[in-house]
């Protein structure tokens, strides 16, 4: 899933259309407010960010993304105005992973998106996920608590991985059901609760890292003491 924040409707629609035609899932947002609302629902693989936006500008959004542990690793491409050298410098200084100047050719644009995804995904597949004393080697399917290996079922592992990948972000029971069990479930969100309970037990002392957010769902690594 790729998110595009761009207030100019023609450009936003063209970007979303081009990405979808190239086999990506994409969503467009008119401003930061709409973007943040959706980000708390689903974390994207990449964000395209226009600089001049109504309300919060692109640089402010970039800084917020890069200063939060839950969103820092999302790659960002800034979309700058043509020839604005200053914007490019600011974007890269602000932590953007790449930039592209408007107007751009769609072939080049898709190539840049693919290149950045390749770069960041090659990175993340060999990466370990860590929260507090909890460590996960995604490729080897190994979970360690304070250096001791913990045996998890496949569903428990997938649940923990999804929470760790979205560190700091609250995931609803419906999201967890859909992502891990792969279907929409009418009311049977209890399945999630049961798996969270056994997962917590197996993680022992680190089980408390999996927080219940009352009335919403679950989150890992949400409080400052874990950073
Ligand atoms: Ca704009």
Write the layout of secondary structure elements.
Elements: E1 2-5, H1 9-21, E2 26-29, H2 32-39, E3 46-50, H3 58-67, E4 76-80, H4 85-93, E5 98-101, H5 106-125, E6 128-131, E7 134-137, E8 142-145, E9 148-150, H6 154-165, E10 171-172, H7 173-181, H8 190-203, E11 210-213, E12 217-220
Parallel strand pairs: 1-2, 1-3, 3-4, 4-5
Antiparallel strand pairs: 6-7, 7-8, 8-9, 10-12, 11-12
Helix pairs in contact: 6-7, 6-8
The protein binds calcium ion (CA).
List keywords for this structure.
single chain, 227 residues, alpha/beta, Rossmann fold, Arc Repressor Mutant, subunit A, 5-stranded parallel beta sheet, 4-stranded antiparallel beta sheet, 8 helices, 21% strand
């Amino acid at each position: 899933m790729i998110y595009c924040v761009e207030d100019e409707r023609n450009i936003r629609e063209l970007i979303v259309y081009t990405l979808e035609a190239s086999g990506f899932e994409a969503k467009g947002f008119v401003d930061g407010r709409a973007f943040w609302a959706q980000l708390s629902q689903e974390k994207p693989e990449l964000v395209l960010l226009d600089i001049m936006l109504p309300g919060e500008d692109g640089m402010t959004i970039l800084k917020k993304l890069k200063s939060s542990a839950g969103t820092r690793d999302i790659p960002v491409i800034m979309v700058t105005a043509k020839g604005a050298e200053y914007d490019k410098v600011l974007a890269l200084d602000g932590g953007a992973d790449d930039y592209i100047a408007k107007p751009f050719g769609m072939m080049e644009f898709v190539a840049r998106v693919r290149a950045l995804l390749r770069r960041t995904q090659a990175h993340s597949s060999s990466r370990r996920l860590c929260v507090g004393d909890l460590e996960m080697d995604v490729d080897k399917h190994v979970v360690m608590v304070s250096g001791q290996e913990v045996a998890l079922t496949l569903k428990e592992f997938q649940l923990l991985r999804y929470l760790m990948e979205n560190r700091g972000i609250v995931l609803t029971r419906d999201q967890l059901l859909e992502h891990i069990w792969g279907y929409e479930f009418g009311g049977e969100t209890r399945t999630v609760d049961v798996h969270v309970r056994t997962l917590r037990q197996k993680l022992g002392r680190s089980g408390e890292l999996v927080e219940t957010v009352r009335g919403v769902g679950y989150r890992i690594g949400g409080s400052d003491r874990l950073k």
